[in-house]
Amino acid sequence: MTAELIDLFGMPLDRVFGYRELRASGLSRRRLEQALIHGTLVRARRDIYLSATASPNVVQAQRVGGRLDCLSVLQELGVFVLDNNRLHVQVEAYDGRLRSPTSRKERLAHTRHGNRVVVHWRNIDVPLDLHSVPIVHALAQSAFCQPPRSTIASIDSALNRGVIAEDHLTELFALLPPRLKALRPLVDGRAEAGSETLARLLLRVLGCRIELQKWIDGVGRVDLVVDGWLVVECDSRAHHEGWAMQEADRERDLALAARGYMTIRPTAKLIFHRPEVLIAAVRGLLAGRQ
User: Fold this and answer.
1) What CATH code would you report for 194-289?
2) Most buried of 94, 125, 175, 253, CB within 10 angstroms?
3) Phi and psi dihedrals of 257, rounded to 5?
4) Phi-psi category of 20—alpha, beta or left, where left has phi over 0 and alpha has psi -120 to 50?
């Protein structure tokens, strides 16, 4: 139990608690009521309480009878997810069904979110009082809820952000079926954005040599270098918006040109939703170089 996971009641912030457990910890009924009134604790459902630091998605997962899982856990941790607007919830397989919300407030919450809840019926060997599925199990489940390239991008992102370490990969891929174990050699935690991973995987179909996060003297690191001369910079709005940044990017491109490199800058949106445009552009440039 780490210090940052302790709240003012001496309870870990990544758990759920029952009423009896809170009382046994020394919390009086009056103090419990005050904690609920002042928002220090949140009642997710009957006899289930969470620290007020829990996110709305964590609370909602408990309200529908499970705990946060899969793509929803990745999003909570800032790990790249290409597309997800649904709440992923893990429920133990022997539960048989989702719990029935009892109070009017819970029924309204369940109705409002029910059409966007994805339930993963499975048992995992971790404490049942954790309010979210551990990241390794969440990544493993995400492999069934997104395409293979997006799965690799999520794993790359988790590695790059330090959410998992290289040592966790063995555990992660042990949770996956044989057909998905083939993804492991494609994982590369040096990718700093999901768009970099997806561009790298897309361009592999051309059979070209791809270098990731290559250092070029006088310029710095670039996202991808194809066949030793074509630089692919995967631009996102967050890091390339505004004229000052565009000027810096153009000066950088000129510095690359002075060193014999050609640069193209596909946007993240284009890589995600129109990948054929990037493939056609690189294929055309490679053909013209021959």
Assistant:
1) 3.40.960.10
2) 253
3) -60, -40
4) alpha
Helical spans, DSSP H, in the chain: 19-24, 29-38, 56-63, 70-76, 104-114, 135-142, 148-160, 168-174, 178-181, 194-203, 243-258, 268-273, 275-289
- Torsion angle (degrees, nearest 10) of CA 106, 52, 59, 80: 150
144 CB-near residues (< 8 Å, 6+ apart): none
For strands 48-51 and 41-45, give the pairing.
antiparallel
* Identity of residue 66: G
- Cβ burial, residue 98 (10 Å; 0-12/13-18/19+): middle
- d(CA 93, CA 73) in angstroms, rounded, equals 19
Residue with tokens 């919300």: 101
pLDDT band at 21 (very low <50, low <70, confident <90, very high): confident
C-alpha 162/C-alpha 173 separation (Å) is: 18
Task: Cite the residue boundaries of each domain of the chain with CATH code 3.40.960.10.
Answer: 194-289
Q: What is the pLDDT of residue 5?
A: 40
Question: For the segment 70-128, what is each residue's pLDDT rounded down to a tens digit?
Answer: 999 999 999 999 999 999 999 988 654 455 444 444 444 444 455 689 999 999 988 88
Alpha-carbon gap, residue 190 to 158, rounded angstroms? 10
CA–CA separation, 210 vs 225, rounded Å?
A: 6
H-run or E-run covering 76: helix 70-76
pTM over 0.90: no
